[in-house]
Amino acid sequence: MSQGPEGMELSSRAPIRKHSLLIALGGNLASSVGRPQETLKAALKLLQTSGAVIRATSRFYHTPAFPAGAGPNYVNAAVRIEAPWEPEKALGVLHRIEAQFGRERLQRWGQRTLDLDLLACDDIVLPDRNTHKMWRELPLDAQIGRTPEQLILPHPRLQDRAFVLVPLADVAPDWVHPLLGKPVRALLEAMPERDRADVRPM
After folding, report:
1. Is 170 an annotated catalytic residue?
2. What confidence tens digit (pLDDT) does each residue in 35-56 have?
3. Global pTM?
4. Taking a C-beta distance cutoff of 8 angstroms, is the pair 46, 99 a contact?
5. Which of 191, 174, 193, 192 is nearest to 182 (CA)?
6. Catalytic status, residue 146
7. Which end of the chain is more exposed for a tag (fewer CB within 10 A), N or C?
8. Which of 83, 79, 116 is nearest to 101 (CA)?
């Protein structure tokens, strides 16, 4: 501690850095709190009690299961939050909240009570541009069988999925992908009309 005017103590601690995070929410199975839309609402409350400030929440949407035939249709949404979490810390918080609603990671892209995907943290690129490019351009059949061992940011497939981009456009239409150089609204406009039409407001 140092002293300011009139002997007042001044804190030497640096201010806690707040990050802007974009998160996708989804689910297609009932949880302990009810239907998927109720689970998403409860998850938003838990984000707040975990230390996040919610800046914007999208509408809730009905979307077809991905990949096709993978189970009941989903409820999807997106949220923009501010929190003092580095990316790895944020991922840990999201996984803890998922577990509270019975999420089990038994099958890639399988049915689930709750899915919380960290889409972006500020304009951070992880782990590096080349690794991101490799995962971003991975063919669909390879995506099904491979899971990255480290956190990839921005989410390597957010630009390919209407069920992510439509809600994301509600909360962060002007967020610019740091590698693609395009805002969310432009990424969404580039999606096939049929894919966009499949994402229906509830």
Report:
1. no
2. 999 999 999 999 999 999 999 9
3. 0.88
4. no
5. 174
6. no
7. N
8. 116
